[in-house]
Amino acid sequence: MERATDYPPSGKSVIDLKRLTKRYGGHTAVNGLNLTIERGEIFGLLGPNGAGKTTTILMMLGLTEPTDGTARVCGLDPARQSLEVKRRVGYMPDDIGFYDDRTALDNLMFTASLNGLNAQEGRRRALELLDRVGLGEAAGKKAGTFSRGMRQRLGIADVLIKKPEVVILDEPTLGIDPEGVRELLQLIREMSRNEGLTVLLSSHHLHQVQQICDRVGLFVRGELIACGDVASLARQLDEDGSVTVEIEASCWTEALTERLKSLDGFIGSGSPVRLPGHPEEASRASFVFGSDQTSDAAKLVIESGARLHAIRRKQYGLDDIYHRYFEGGGSHERNNR
Amino acid sequence: MSETIVSRGGYWKRLSGLLGDRRPSAERFESANRGKGGASPFRAIVAKEFGDHMRSWRFVILLGIVALACIGSIYAAVTAIQAGVQSGQADDEYLFLQMFTASDGTLPTFVTFVSFLGPLIGIALGFDAVNSERNKGTLSRLLSQPVYRGDFILAKFAAALLLIAVVLFSLGFLVMGLGLVTIGYPPTPEEAMRVVLFLLVAVVFVGFWLNLSILFSICFRQAATSALSGIALWLFFSVFYSMITGLIDKATAPAESSAFSVLLRHYEQMLLLNRLSPSYLFSEATSTLLMPNVRTLGPLTTEQVVGAIASPLPLLQSVLLSWPQLVGLLAATMVCFGLSYALFMRQEIRSR
């Protein structure tokens, strides 16, 4: 199950949503959603609050019925075969709750028994998973005493105890401190890579999604606006596809600037700015190209005799996309398309 | 006691076995240890709920109240019986059953206590069954496991009912044992059977209130609202309902001089109105079971009584007499459960 490449093998689709729609009275929470997620991939569902992410997840689990359209999870219909689906899918709700007066171990063992594991096996797996999520020490502590981050990690263990094929995490990083988020994302990535799990995580934190997801779907007001890996998303949403190269070097000469400007597809540049307090009096400048010219730029800098300290390629991050689609809000975001 | 519980357990086991049969086997999916040797989810929830109830303070407090009330009622009964025996008034037939129904007037009888406090146990065990899980955020986690929704509420109900059965039977047998020690008068097998049947009816009665409060816990998101609704209904039926029917009775009563058939019809209508209250059904059923001298629950005309021998009814006849009441209680329980089931199946499970 170990994955050789960073990108998932395009194999069987695990989650397949077709024209999935959910209406509450007159309000449409999810509108004609088409989405396919492949085995072994980490998919990020990115959207602002109230975009319909949780509703979509609930429909995938059969916890609520779609108004229209079909969902297939592991080839099963969640509305009809919800039990089979739930056997294969581990779901961590946002703001996960545990039985506060029971210990972490008890909570996990209860989940294990609901999944038909016997007591010994459940205990063994629970302890193993507690160790894995870094709660080995706290196994005997009551879940009520856990901090938010610990609860979230316990949630991961709780999801994994049934040995799922698919893991759905709803806002897993909500309300955790940055270090906790880093650890949690690391954990999610590890479990996906080591066990070939398909992970669907929803979030409104684009940076976190960007860090670990193979593909991202942008979800706004019940509709999937764009879908793909971060690079293709940027291409989809930003046709000019320009690349900014940021260079930090000392012994910067005017000739070097000119030569950099003569590279293919040069669009624009900023003049070198002296970096304050740098021991070698380095300057920093950025150049915008129509295509990726990072390595050529680096070569030029070195050939010109300047001392290269750092070179960075800045691509369109989800940041720009995020701002354009979410924070712009209102109706003009549609007009942008 | 143990016999009943074992057979109950057997029933549940069979029931869950039946449910298990129509479920697709878990084994064909992935790990080999799954599905083998592990209890069914239904059993797992029942076991957990039972443990939770046992450990909860709420249960300890309720048990304390009920136990104290029962000891008080035994004391009252024993004094009443001893006084009666001394003055030679006591009916020494079915003397043992008077442990449950007699009182010297200082404290209510055991039966009264059960009919008054029993519903409170039911409500206390059920009022937050579903909404507390919802508010703690455990419901969506639980229902994302391979568990049928129906199983979930059935397990909640079964666990609490099992506990109620254990409590009521323990109390009942405690009263029997204490009675044996204090009055030194052993029960006949028939009397013992009557007590067991009475306790069974009591479990059904408390089960009704339990189910009603589970229904409320599904309807209302706030545990306090559901508890208050349950307690309001309980107060209504155990205190106010008889007052209201009394009022209606007075307002609609035909003149004393009316024809006999008119009077009889009015009486029967009032009886029907009273029997809408589960507490009334329970008191009718228990008085028939515990007082063999009760020969009828409705009006009897002089013609009907003519030629009848004023002797206590045999056990089977008493059971027959209280059968409609028991069925009524069971039906009310079923209706509540059906409603809970229908409501819960349609609910959307969101976290918090």
From TrEMBL, chain A:
The keyword ATP-binding applies. Residues 15-246 form the ABC transporter domain. SMART domains: AAA. GO terms for molecular function: ATP binding; ATP hydrolysis activity. PROSITE patterns: ABC_TRANSPORTER_2. It comes from the Bacteria. InterPro entries: AAA+_ATPase (IPR003593), ABC_transporter-like_ATP-bd (IPR003439), P-loop_NTPase (IPR027417). The keyword Transport applies. It holds the Pfam family ABC_tran. Keywords: ATP-binding, Nucleotide-binding, Transport. Belongs to the ABC transporter superfamily. This is ABC transporter ATP-binding protein. It comes from Paenibacillus arenilitoris. The lineage of its organism: Bacteria, Bacillati, Bacillota, Bacilli, Bacillales.
Automatic annotation (TrEMBL), chain B:
One of its GO terms (molecular function) is ABC-type transporter activity. It comes from the Bacteria. One of its GO terms (cellular component) is plasma membrane. The chain crosses the membrane at residues 59-85, 105-131, 152-183, 195-220, 227-248, 323-344. The keyword Transmembrane helix applies. Keywords: Membrane, Transmembrane, Transmembrane helix. This is ABC transporter permease. It comes from Paenibacillus arenilitoris. The lineage of its organism: Bacteria, Bacillati, Bacillota, Bacilli, Bacillales.
